[in-house]
Design a protein that fits this description.
With 258 residues, the chain is mainly beta. The chain is built from one helix and 21 strands. The chain is globular, with a radius of gyration of 18 Å.
Length: 258
């Protein structure tokens, strides 16, 4: 759990074996954000002090959530830092189009509009210096609508590559043919992580006392992000944010019914 920036090595907290995931033992998911209502948006701000979980620089992150009349949930991210630091902000929302209390729902169809993904090793890290491989002929091929229950038992996690960063791309669709509900995912990020709730901790309870996992196919994560471990992968795009720069990204979840 380390990286080097401008010749300086930084050791960050290792909360998964020798590696770090989700920002460390107390990542942003466990932090209390300042919240403000601004028009039709909710804006969340968190200032991460220099050295938190081992990361250099005071990082100020502002994330806004906006619901539109076009049935869109828009997430805008903005961040600045006082020292050069790696950054890869995202969310980990699970979707169940049958309803949050539905439990198992193997009728989800998933489509990911990419023909390349990031192969991983036994530690779930990208192989080599950051390899990309074709999805063709693999369990990771979701270029056409794929029934979740057909892949859930063998699928661990996968990050799909979409090339550039900064331009809006239609990266995925999740749909439920039973009730016609669907979600289209658009993002400016170069990657999309796909994860299923079968890997969730047991007896995890959500709103109204509903148990969310682990279910065979109770929910699907569609996580726009930069490519994983990019700071240590020479072949992946640069993930370093510097003091003179502003980090921005946008993700849109567009809901509909057929």
């Amino acid at each position: 759990a380390k990286f080097t920036i401008d010749g300086v090595e930084y050791n960050v907290s290792a909360n998964e074996g020798q590696n770090q995931v989700h920002g460390g033992f107390y990542g942003f998911d466990s932090k209390l954000f300042d919240a403000k209502i601004k028009g039709n948006k909710v804006e969340m701000t968190y200032v991460s002090p220099d050295g938190e979980e081992g990361f250099p620089g005071e990082l100020t992150s502002v994330i806004s959530f906006q619901l539109t009349n076009e049935n869109e949930l828009i997430l805008d991210y903005r961040a600045t830092t006082t020292k050069a630091t790696p950054i890869n902000l995202s969310n980990h929302v699970y979707f169940n189009l049958e309803g949050h209390k539905a439990g198992k729902n193997g009728d989800h169809l998933i489509s990911v509009f990419s023909d390349t993904y990031v192969p991983i090793d036994e530690a779930l890290l990208p192989k080599g210096d950051g390899e990309l491989a074709t999805v063709n002929g693999t369990i990771f091929d979701f270029q056409n609508p794929t029934l979740v229950r057909k892949v859930i038992n063998d699928f661990i996690v996968s990050c799909y590559s979409f090339g550039d960063r900064g331009t809006r791309k239609h990266v995925a669709r999740l749909e439920n043919p039973t009730n016609g509900r669907y979600i289209d995912v658009f993002t400016t990020e170069p990657g999309l992580d796909v994860y299923f709730s079968s890997r969730m901790k047991p007896n995890l309870y959500g709103k109204d006392g509903a148990m969310y996992g682990p279910f065979e196919d109770g929910g699907v994560c569609l996580i726009p992000m930069q490519l994983p471990s990019g700071i240590n992968m020479p072949n992946f795009p640069d993930t370093i944010l510097r003091p003179e720069e502003i980090y921005t990204q946008r993700t849109i979840y567009k809901f509909g019914v057929k």
